[in-house]
Every structure is written in C-alpha cells, then in structure tokens.
Amino acid sequence: MDKYFVMIVPKIIWQISGGCTHECWYCLPKYRNNPNYRHLDDYLKVINLIQNHGERSKFTKFSWKFKGGEPLQFPNFNIILREVKSKESQVALETSGEDNWFNILEIIEFLDRVELTHHYWQNESVLNYIIDLTKERSIDLKIKIPMLPGKMRDCVDKADSLKAQGINVEEQLLSDEYNQTISNYSLLDYNIYYRRPEDWAPPPPPSLEPEAAVNSMPPSTPVWVDPRIDDGAPKYTGKPCYAGVDYLYIDSKGFASGSDCGGRMIDNVFSDGWTPPDMPFPCPMLFCRSHNDYQNIRIPK
Question: Structurally, what CATH architecture does the domain formed by 10-200 represent?
Fold first, then answer.
C-alpha cells in the first residue's frame, strides 16, 4: 500500500446539527436555530462515502469531530457513531453533556475525546458523572466554561476548582458573530477573569508637552512580510493541493469545504451523486496564507 495512505489521517469536522433547545442567550443563532435533520440513511451514506470512496478507501484511519448545536439531541446519534467506528477512527465530540446521564452513556463507547461546555445552570452531578466516566474509560476530556458578564466570579471559581482536579479547562470569553468579544463585560469582570484585584484600574497615560508628544509618537506599524514570498511570482498556482482529502468541514445543512480559501468546490454532501474528493486538484491560488490550512492540508511547496 502507498506509504502516503498509511501515514495521513484525514480530518472530518461535522457540524452535525445547528439545533439546540437550551436557548442560552449567549449562543449564536447559527448554533441553535437550524437543526436541519434528515433521514438517518442520508448520514450513513455520507459517512460510507467519506471513508470508502475511491482512493479514500486506502486510508487506514480517520479523525472525526462532531459538533452542533447539540449533537446529543441529534436523533440516532449512536448509530451514526457506530458507522464511523466501522473503520478505525478517532472520534471527538463537542457537547454540553445535556442534563441527564443517559444521553452521554448511550454513546460513550464510541468516543476518544470529549470537549464539554459546562453552563452555569447545569446539574453539577451530571458534570461530575461525565468527569468520572471519561477518567474510567481513559477518554481525553476538555471542559469549556463560558465566562458570563455579571457572573464572572462564579465562572472563575468553577474553572479553578476543575483545574485543581487536573482537568484541562478553557475559559471562554463570549464572542459575537464576527468573532469579536462582546461589549457586555465590565472592568470588574475583566479584573476577575485576569485574576487581578477587583478594584484594579489602568493607570492614566502620562501627560506630555505638545512638542514632546510629537517626538514620542511611535513609528508606524511595520508591515508583516511573508518570508515565503521572495520575488512576487506565483508559488502555488497549478500545484497539487489536497484540500477536501486531508481535511473536510461539513456544516449543519451539508455544505462542505476543504480549506479556508475555498479554492475547491465540494458542494453539498446530501446532493444526488455527491462524492468526496479523493485526489489532489490544481491549486488556483498565488499564495496560501491560512495557518489552519498549513496544519491540516498538504500544501504544495
């Protein structure tokens, strides 16, 4: 078998649903108002194609990540994961864990990594149960804590208590649809978040005489230059790119992409006759500037 297929582990990130019934005020609409559930057979067909179509059948292992919405609310999710595991696969799940033990217990046998978002209103006993269950089964666990305006002390205390147990914790400041931190946070919130004294205030800027102010102006911000660009000539155009083969992202409606640049059209996985890319295509870009693509796709040199 070609050494390439043995060494490469294709990554598939699937927003399996844009639906969630919890209606957290700080959750973006794209993650909760678009369930777009289809017949189970549609999903099983796509999984089979991704793992077995054409040259893809030579891959010996796959890496899957399922996210939402809330995947645990997805109908027959255990059957989907069982199909994924029909071929050797690492499976990660982004979830809030729901609010009872049975949701996670039904699928725990298929999971290798859990990224658990713990909300302030959730049942602590369920959180503790999931922590114990993942430890017992040697499942990698990461807990994300949404850091809420006005509730920052409670959020920080919860994060610190989990860290004290040796758990990997990510403290998430809330963002808007443009990936900018929301403006609801007060200075007190930030002081607590950064573990500063609660009455900390930034020092006032030094006052300068007009002439001194002019002379002290910082130099203009230097322009970052891509060290790979030496003469302005195209470096990637026409070379083989493995977008869609090494990495595939699928949104809740089934539209797929293989790179940040979108240079390869992959269409909708639920369309009649759809097949996943299994071979490289000629890169249409002059340069490749996406750090995410560098990490996940073989970029031609």
Answer: Alpha-Beta Barrel (3.20)
